[in-house]
Design a protein that fits this description.
3-stranded mixed sheet, 14 helices, 12 strands, 6-stranded mixed sheet, alpha/beta
Length: about 375
């Protein structure tokens, strides 16, 4: 299941540089607004050390990690909700993604222009939030008008929906994002159906200069304080350094480079894992001599749904799932011994797949 995270932010905050570091899909990076004219999509491997464990245990012909898609979306400016700059294109692109990676500039550099004239990540965030809120207000108001005609006939469902929409509208008018609303089950379903821009989950990426690694600077601290009540993750990266890390292929060389900046891992690895968690995803594995492969599913999915990501026939004709835990595989080394020790479980349609399960599906179509 290919899920997308959209990388957004004002022009010249480092979005395209970060995107280029994330993937081999090279977006044009330049010192002027709108250098990214079309949404660039990069497919990125999700780092997972469990694949290394399985590779050593199974000795497959190939190892295939699970992936995420990152979309580098054209920079937004004030007035985008009214079509300014590339606003309509930006808002159309962002509506398609599952989550938002919001990049804010937390570095000073006289050689890189800033569309607002000065570096202020809190102010920058406010511009984008406001534009998305305005667009969401349009969506909500259109929905209210549509339901108002139906409600005049006495339709109870339409009246109930209007009440919910008025709550959402007031929240947006107060310059609050829809994701911060506490709604009942019906309200949450309505938010999902409308696909509001400000309802999408978000991670904030503070782009700093290399001297501010690994912990950030005063601009980062001010930004963290501003978003502390959102419950969103804030990751500190230096786009220029991440670009250099991404070019290193030798693991030892990469480790030495990270140590030089007191980094335990690259900021982009943090981002990939955080995005995966943000979307409430887990990984299960299939393992055999031909390949070891990681599969992405939603947390809480049952075995037939998980089988369906391999092939729809697996879900349609699901019979049973054979499940091995990685720790048991590491302990007993071979599938034959795992079976002998009674550590291979046979699960039915109601089994909820757990992160890290190694699975083989029995099906008949």
């Amino acid at each position: 299941m290919a899920l997308q995270c959209g990388i957004v932010g004002l022009p010249n905050v480092g979005k395209s540089t970060l995107f280029n570091a994330l993937s081999n899909a090279k977006a044009m990076a330049a010192n002027y607004p709108f250098c990214t004219i079309d949404a660039n999509v990069g497919v990125v491997n999700v780092p997972d050390t469990r694949l290394d464990d399985l590779k050593e245990l199974v000795n497959p012909q190939k190892v295939i990690p699970t992936v995420m898609e990152f979309v580098d979306i054209a920079g937004l400016v004030k007035g985008a909700s009214k079509g300014e700059g590339l606003g309509n294109k930006f808002l159309g692109n962002i509506r398609e993604v599952d989550a938002i990676i919001h990049v804010v500039r937390c570095f000073e550099d006289d050689n890189i222009t800033h569309v607002a004239g000065s570096v202020d990540p809190v102010f920058d965030k406010g511009i984008i939030d406001n534009e998305l809120q305005i667009k969401d207000l349009e969506t909500v108001e259109k929905r209210i008008l549509k339901n108002a005609k139906i409600a005049k006939s006495g339709d109870a469902a339409a009246k109930k929906e209007i009440a919910l929409l008025e709550v959402i509208k007031k929240h947006l008018e107060n310059e609050e994002n829809a994701r911060s609303l506490s709604l009942d089950e019906d309200g949450e379903a309505l938010l999902k159906e409308m696909n509001l821009l400000t309802a999408k989950p978000v991670i904030y990426l503070c782009n700093v200069d290399e001297g501010s690694l690994p912990d950030g600077n005063a601009l980062v601290e001010a930004f963290k304080d501003h978003v502390k009540d959102e419950g969103a993750q804030v990751i500190v990266v230096c786009a220029a350094i991440e670009s250099q890390i991404a070019e290193l292929e030798d693991p030892d060389e990469k480790s030495m480079f990270l140590e030089e900046y007191n980094l335990k891992e690259s900021g982009l690895n943090q981002l990939i894992r955080a995005s995966y968690a943000l979307l409430d995803l887990i990984t299960y594995f299939t393992a055999g001599e031909k390949e070891v492969k990681a599969w992405t599913i939603r947390k809480g999915w049952k075995a037939p749904q998980a089988a369906g990501v391999i092939h729809t026939d697996f879900e349609r004709g699901f019979i049973k799932a054979e499940v091995i835990k990685l720790e048991d595989y590491k302990t007993f080394k071979t599938e034959a011994l795992i079976r002998e020790k009674g550590k291979l479980a046979i699960e039915g349609k109601e089994y909820v797949v757990e992160d890290g399960d190694i699975m083989h599906f029995r099906f008949n179509v």
